[in-house]
Structure formats: C-alpha cells, structure tokens
Amino acid sequence: MATADDAQAKNFDSPDLRLYLYELGFLQGDAAGMAQQVKWSMGKPGQESLLHYFEANTAAYYGQLNKSQEFSRQAVGSAVRAGEKDRAGGAEATADGSLVHQRMPNVSGRRLVETLL
Predict the structure, then answer these.
(1) Among residues 72, 33, 79, 36, which one has the least CA distance to residue 64?
(2) Radius of gyration (Cα) for the chain, nearest Å?
(3) What pLDDT, on the 0 to 100 scale, is given for residue 90?
(4) Residues 6+ positions from 33 with CB-CB distance below 8 Å
(5) 51 CB-contact burial (10 Å; exposed 0-12 / middle 13-18 / buried 19+)
(6) Rounded CA separation 64/56 (Å)
(7) Domain 2-116, what architecture?
(8) What is the pTM for the complete model shown?
(9) Dist CA 91 CA 57 (whole Å)
C-alpha cells in the first residue's frame, strides 16, 4: 500500500493502479478503501462500470445478493452510457446470476450451472 501511496503522491496514477487498490482493499477487508476507488471512478467512462462490476462481485461474495444486483445494474447503466456493449453484457449476466441464486439459494454453484444448461 505504501508503494501505491508513493506513486500517487508523485502523480503516477492510473486506472490499473485503482483496480489493484480495490482488489487489495477487498483482500484486506477494507470497505473504506474499496469505496474510495469506486468514488474515484465515478464519471470516468470505462472505469466507473468496471468498479461497479467489482462492487457487484464483492457484494455477491459476502452473500449480499440484493446489493450485488443493484451494483450490477449500475455497472450495466454506466457501460451502456460509455458504449461498452461487452462489459454491459457481462454485468447483466452477473445481475441475472444473483437473481437466479436468490430464487434457488440451496443450489450449489456447480448444480446451478448444470440446472441452467
């Protein structure tokens, strides 16, 4: 983290650095650090949708499926506004997966995939 702080202090900032900081925040359980990266991404085409997608996956990891769906919807909206059709599709699939899992909470991930196929 100190290295990232040093880089930012010297104006060496990049979208990739922000994604790594979000992931580091996730690994360290640092909700404030993750929120800081999401806040940075707001209004930045290509970054905003990706960070919302990360938020959706984080919420799903913690079993917060309603939040995961909401973040996925935000990712879709942001991706559509930025003209990112592929990313919008991926975020939409994440939202759909959360919805299916809510309806079938006792189904393992593997069985869920088998059921859907």
Answers:
(1) 72
(2) 16
(3) 73
(4) 21, 22, 24, 25
(5) buried
(6) 9
(7) Alpha Horseshoe (1.25)
(8) 0.73
(9) 10
- The residues spanned by each domain of the chain are 2-116
Query: Distances from the Cα of 32 to the Cαs of 10, 24, 37, 108, in angstroms?
Result: 23, 12, 9, 31
- pLDDT tens across 38-77, in order? 999 999 988 999 999 899 989 988 888 889 889 988 988 8
Q: What angle do CA 115, 91, 15 make, to 5 degrees?
A: 140
Helices (H), the chain: 2-9, 15-28, 31-41, 48-61, 65-81, 85-103, 109-116
Of 35, 34, 97, which is closest to residue 65 (Cα–Cα)? 97
Determine the length of the chain: 117
Interacting residues of 69 by C-beta distance below 8 A, sequence separation 6+: 56, 95, 98, 99
Q: Smallest Cα–Cα separation from 87: which of 97, 77, 100, 98?
A: 77
